[in-house]
Amino acid sequence: MSQTVDRALSILPLLAEGPADLGQVAERLGVHKSTALRLLRTLHEHGLVYRQSDQRYRLGARLFALAQEAVENLDIREIAHPHLVRLNEQCGHTVHLAVHEENEVLYIDKVESRYPVRMYSRIGKPVALTVAAVAKLCLADLPEAERRALAEKLDYPLYTSRSTPNAAAFLKELARVREQGWATDLGGHEESINCVAAPIRGADGRVVAAMSVSAPNVVVTADELLTLLPLVRRTADAISGEYSGRTPTSDPV
To answer: What integer pLDDT is reported at residue 4 of this predicted model?
Structure first.
């Protein structure tokens, strides 16, 4: 039975390359045409493959519907939370998870630091778009035209002397973030707070969320916090793998 299931599933990536006839499917599987036909008929009955008028087979609409339903029902917060807790246990600092929704980037999860200093951030609260590391990651993933349009209409409040001052500087920062694959906020929103962040990506490679580690200067310096970047990125990669359904090859953290 397991061999039958394995053969049936092997048909799907073949048809993802394009329509194929019975002979092509049988040849790829290394089986007799009668066996290939039996497998194709079963997949056809479940809507996973479709037989065209030219007798070639392609992926069926039911497969796409299942994939879309699965994506819509994924809860990034539920998937990410155990990873955020583990990261917090390892480094001791505040860990955030944020997503881009319409014109805002919102915190959707937070694990507090172990020390008495607490950050003002709250779940459901929008982040400062022009300075927050998680916002930079979410916005850097937008197509260039959207990034430029957004940058032109934003206000650029000078929270500190390190805040992003204007659209040109913001676009330059987003380009750098897009290229390097991570972001920082080193005193851009609050002089005493530093932050490093990494993106969480879906199966298509697009950014679906961003996570960060934040700490005040009285606890660690900016340089000390930056040493945690590899750990933050590995954690984000682990969440990305679980969210997109990729099987991890090793323990990410």
So the answer is: 85
**Is the pTM value of this prediction over 0.85?**
no
- pLDDT at residue 9 in the model: 87
The stretches in the chain having pLDDT less than 50 are: 249-253
Q: Are the beta carbons of 232 and 213 closer than 8 angstroms?
A: yes
pLDDT of residue 118: 62
Q: Which residue has the tokens 């920082």?
A: 184
Q: Residue 105 burial by CB count (10 A; 0-12/13-18/19+): exposed, middle or buried?
A: buried
Share of the chain above pLDDT 70, in %: 92
One-letter amino acid of 1: M
Tokens 């959707």 map to which residue?
108
Cβ density class 43-65: b for 16+ within 10 Å, e for less: beeeebbbbeeeebbebbeebee
Q: Which strand ranges, in their side-by-side order, compose the sheet holding 104-111?
A: 104-111, 94-101, 207-216, 193-201, 183-186
Q: How many CB atoms are located within 10 Å of the residue 41 CB?
A: 11
Q: What does the block give as tokens for 33?
A: 């045409």
**Predicted local distance difference test score (pLDDT) of residue 1:** 57
Q: How many CA atoms lie within 13 A of 79 on its CB side?
A: 22
* pLDDT score, position 155: 94
- The amino acid occupying position 79 is I
* Dihedral (CA of 11, 12, 17, 18) sign: positive
